[in-house]
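Last lecture ended with a question: if I hand you only a sequence, what can you say about the shape of the protein? Today we answer it with a concrete record. The protein is Urease accessory protein UreD. Below, first the input exactly as provided, then the predicted structure, then a couple of comments.
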Amino acid sequence: MSTLAEDRPPLPDTSGVVATARVRAGHNGRATTLPLLSSDGPFQLQKLRPRGDLARVDVIGAMSGPLGGDQLALHADVGPQARLEITAATSTIALRGPSDDAATYDIRLTIGDDAALHWLPQPLISTAGSNLRQTCAVDLAPTARLVLRDEQVLGRTGETCGHLTSHLTVLRAGRPLLDQHTSYGHPHPAWNGPAVVGSHRACGQLLVVDPSLTPAARPTVLLGNPDTPAHGVLVPLGGPALLATVVADTATRLRRLLDQALHRALTP
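The predicted structure:
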């Protein structure tokens, strides 16, 4: 007996992977614990040996991605007095997928009172033909501490970058501390002009938020050597925060300057 098309069950949506990984850190009065470590899709979360009072989690990519049409998310919640470091074993590589739809990567970080988060992933690489929209939303309690590193590599060796947009918002005590939107690749005009990245193909930033910082006493610092194709600046923000912005010709030089910025930010 034949079955009418309208009577058949709908085919599953195969436009992309939908996955959300979650981390929750708490403090039991003696040390930071990880009551929730939920892997999903390409995100495999692995608990690492603590470093001092920092609990540590490594994000391991279990598959290629994000690909066009994927909807990926990673949420981390650091409870009061907890200390957490999140790193990544490998770079995130945005690739052309079977769908022309943009891939999305949504990062949400919440840090409670007297808590600390070190968000230190490997670079995001935007490959030719890829289309990725990345958002990172951070919500800080008034006494929370944050070290956040964000790096992008615009194309692999010998290729142009894909279409990449990145939106970073940081709230502290419910008030905006930083709201930054960047776009690279076609169809954004002048993204590789001298006012944006020019000939540089690696860019990134480092944000340090700490209630003990006194940014008013910190002058703006230029990073890098004029004779090398890597330059940056470390500036105070409107709260107890410092922001470094760097462009470079390679990911190695980019990381070197961001590490330099971190050292300067943490040195009184």
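Comments.
1. DSSP finds one helix and 18 strands in the chain.
2. Residues 17-195 form one domain.
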